[in-house]
Design brief:
single chain; alpha/beta; Rossmann fold; 7 helices
Amino acid sequence: MTRLILIRHGQTAWHSDGLDRAEGRADVELDEAGVRQARATAARLSLWPVAAVYSSPLKRAMATADTIAARRGLTARPEPGLIDIDYGRWQGMTHEEARADDPRAYDLWLKRPQQVTFPGGEDLARVRERAVGAVRALAPGHEGQTVVLVAHKVVIKLLLCHFLGLDDTGFWSFQQGFCALNVVGVGEGPAVLYLANDSCHLPG
């Protein structure tokens, strides 16, 4: 069995003001709090024998992954399949701005997210397909090892749905804080969830 540690990247300036903007494909960097979170996460991972670190290629994820990998003497490897969702026209918008832009689509996103294709962007099914495909491709090469995957809130929530046998209607059943840990065991049988959205290692 392969142990996967799924980690959301650290905080960025787009969230430090509390407005929670849709980052998506915007290549936003970690802010000072995010850097501290990444360091604390790297220290927490000393509990596991990490063999490899993979990351979304976006800067906020790679910076988090680089911090984690460096502590173990590893090099973080970019994995395009873990890139964030494309929010299209909503990229950079706050929740209030997205609601004002398209009230009907925003309401649908909150109630039936699996039915939403973001204006000029993509839907959950496409993100899930590429993220699951990336995991399936890399996992066999790490049988019996512990592997870190640094990605984004949407990507991790969809991977958790996949591992637990849920369809995309379960998207809102999970929360993912910055640098939160999720530990999943995958192999020939059903996946096993050992830890979810754990952030007890982060500075207050």
